[in-house]
Design brief:
580 residues; alpha/beta; Beta-Lactamase; Alpha-Beta Plaits; TIM Barrel; 3 domains; eight-stranded mixed barrel; five-stranded antiparallel sheet; 23% strand; elongated; binds ligand C2E; binds calcium ion
């Protein structure tokens, strides 16, 4: 059967125009390996050749006189058939993929071509259909498409795919106002390995590198091989350039281990250059060439490291990452004796009586390299990296340990200690178990502690947060909203929260005497808080004037440098004993 777009059906060919006698044409039809079916003008089957019988599993007797519809597997829509008939009417020809069903019920795909054979007067005489094999050609087509966009050695997207995907990602970044990082990765000393151990070893090494690169990034990030030992990674929608630094250092770690290839241990450390959209470029070629320059700096800086295109980023990333690593190490080796962390306490004073009624536990980190690191710095890093979980747990345990020491060794009683809880801790049910465990372990009552949650935390993911706060409250633990006034909580919402205290943010107290606005907010907050039955605590009280002002407004508890800065445990004990 002809495969041209103008098939000429054998049996319908007027004999005079063919050089072959009709008998030869009949034999060709009978013996063709291509399955062929002929229907009449009403689309009833008049003939099928043996190849078609072998394909479908039916005998001619099963089929002749029936509509070919009986073969359909039911996968195609009415629209599909409408299109087919439209083409047959308009062009006397149709071709396309169909799924038919064999007599034994198995469906099979075929490339179907149907030609219309007309009588001399133009009316339809027959439809001739041939069913060619589809699998081979479809696989070949798929394979070709795959090869065009993939590197056959590593199966990673190739340069062509990378360029088109980067262009696409940049369009999205421009539209959504997002940042993107492009990393160019070049293996150190790869040429050496290739030259001395041979290409087959080099190839295996590249394949292993490709696998490890894939493991170092999210599945949504693009990893591609540009050629040779050059790879790229595109991180779309990064929240900060420093996340690119984190991924780069992860890649560095992943590639640092040796590779076992043909019983040899090989090393393929990377030099990584990073450019950022939009600061280092807004189009693919600028970003790539800037990443390339950064990569050469990395080579120049002794290989096996990463460099940003912008020197300022390098400083920030270096400092930030060193601190993150130090924090990670310090947390991993946390132990009461040789610990870089400690808890300081700041007293809380009852306004009316001047008595110390509570303490706030504040975390301190002293690092051999960085010295005393302010919490504003390292708590943020701990939150970004998830390290706040183990660190926050430690704060709870250590604070409980110190409370029990105060009670047992110094007879200090009736002092409630407030512990700061971060948003991430509050999202985990295990916070409850942990707090319960620490209280039980040190034989404390729920009244010995209080938990402080910032206003923004309390407002964030209210459903889960609320349920955990409810359970903590049910245990008898007092809850306070920290930094109140900095967020956007509605008091109506606060009514549904199981809280007992509001801590008025320091920023309002700071200007309370000079700024009429701040004074008004303080006064209104205190009044509204009281109307909801809440206790009001003012933080950051530094001057007697602020104290008097807050006392006049009826603020219940005061905390600030006026009374004491946060102090280590021993000083806290001395402070409390002196005021007993
Ligand atoms: P915060 O919870 O609002 O803690 C009060 C901060 O104000 C403390 O800073 C304290 O030293 C400071 N402060 C107290 N009185 C005064 C004052 O009169 N004047 C001034 N200028 N400052 C005063 P610190 O200790 O540096 O802590 C900063 C923040 O770090 C805390 O703010 C809290 O958000 C966070 N933090 C500290 N320890 C922990 C902890 O164990 N866990 C968590 N999740 N966060 C903590
Ligand atoms: Ca606090
Ligand atoms: Ca606060």
């Amino acid at each position: 059967m002809p495969r041209s777009t103008k098939p000429v059906p054998a049996s319908a060919q007027p004999a005079g125009e063919s050089r072959l006698p009709p008998e030869a044409l009949r034999r060709a039809y009978e013996q063709s390996l291509e399955p062929i079916m002929i229907t009449d003008r009403d689309n009833r089957i008049v003939s099928v050749n043996p190849a078609f019988c072998r394909l479908s599993g039916y005998t001619p007797a099963d089929l002749v006189g029936h509509n070919p519809r009986m073969l359909a597997s039911g996968r195609a829509s009415p629209e599909f058939y409408a299109g087919m008939w439209q083409a047959l009417n308009d062009k006397d020809f149709w071709e396309g993929e169909i799924w038919d069903q064999r007599q034994d019920g198995i469906s099979y795909p075929r490339w179907l071509k149907i030609a219309v054979v007309r009588n001399p007067d133009g009316s339809v005489a027959n439809y001739v259909a041939n069913f060619s094999d589809i699998n081979a050609s479809k696989e070949v087509a798929d394979r070709l498409a795959y090869l065009a966009y993939h590197d056959p050695l590593t199966n990673l997207p190739n340069r062509l795919a990378f360029e088109s995907q980067l262009a696409q990602s940049l369009r999205i970044c421009a539209r959504e106002n997002e940042q993107l990082a492009l990393m160019l990765i070049d293996l150190d000393n790869f040429k050496n390995i290739n030259d001395t151990l041979g290409h087959p070893v080099g190839d295996k090494l590249l394949q292993n590198v490709a696998v490890r690169l894939g493991e170092a990034v999210r599945s949504s990030d693009l990893v591609a091989r540009l050629g040779g030992d050059e790879f790229v990674v595109v991180l779309a929608d990064i929240d900060s350039p420093l996340s690119a630094a984190r991924v780069a250092s992860k890649i560095q770690q992943q590639l640092a281990d040796s590779y076992r290839i043909d019983d040899q241990a090989l090393y393929a450390t990377p030099s990584i250059g990073i450019s950022l959209y939009p600061v280092d470029g807004t189009d693919p070629s600028t970003l790539l060439s800037n990443a390339d320059r950064a990569m050469y700096h990395a080579k120049g800086a002794g290989r096996n490291n990463y460099q940003f295109y912008s020197p300022r980023m390098n400083e920030a990333a270096g400092e930030r990452l060193r601190m993150e690593n130090e924090l990670r190490r310090a947390i991993a080796s946390i132990a009461p004796a040789s610990c870089e962390f400690s808890i300081h306490f700041q007293p809380q004073i009852e306004t009316a009586s001047g008595r110390t009624v509570g303490l706030e536990a504040l975390l301190r980190w002293h690092n051999p390299t960085f010295g005393q690191v302010p919490p504003s710095r390292f708590i943020a890093i701990a939150e970004e990296t998830g390290l706040i979980q183990p660190l926050g747990d430690w704060v709870v345990w250590e604070t409980c340990r110190l409370i029990s020491l105060m009670k047992e060794e110094h007879g200090i009683a009736n002092i409630r200690v407030a512990i700061n809880i971060s948003a991430q801790q509050l999202r985990h049910e295990n916070l409850l178990q942990m707090v319960r465990g620490a209280l039980a372990c040190y034989e404390l009552s729920p009244y010995d502690i209080e938990l402080e949650v910032t206003e923004s935390t309390a407002m964030h993911s209210p459903e889960t947060t609320l349920s955990i706060l409810d359970q903590l409250s049910a245990m008898g633990i007092k809850l306070a909203i920290d930094d109140f006034g900095t967020g956007y909580s509605s008091l109506a919402y606060l009514k549904h929260m199981p809280i007992q205290r509001l801590k008025l943010d320091r920023s309002f107290v700071l200007d309370i005497e000079s700024d009429a606005n701040d004074a008004a907010i303080c006064s209104a907050t205190i009044a509204l808080g009281h109307s909801l039955g809440l206790e009001l605590v003012a933080e950051g009280v530094e001057t007697p004037a602020q104290r008097d002002f807050l006392a006049d407004l009826g603020c219940d508890v005061l905390q600030g440098y006026l009374y004491s800065k946060p102090m280590p445990y021993e000083d806290t004990v001395a402070y409390l004993q002196a005021r007993r």
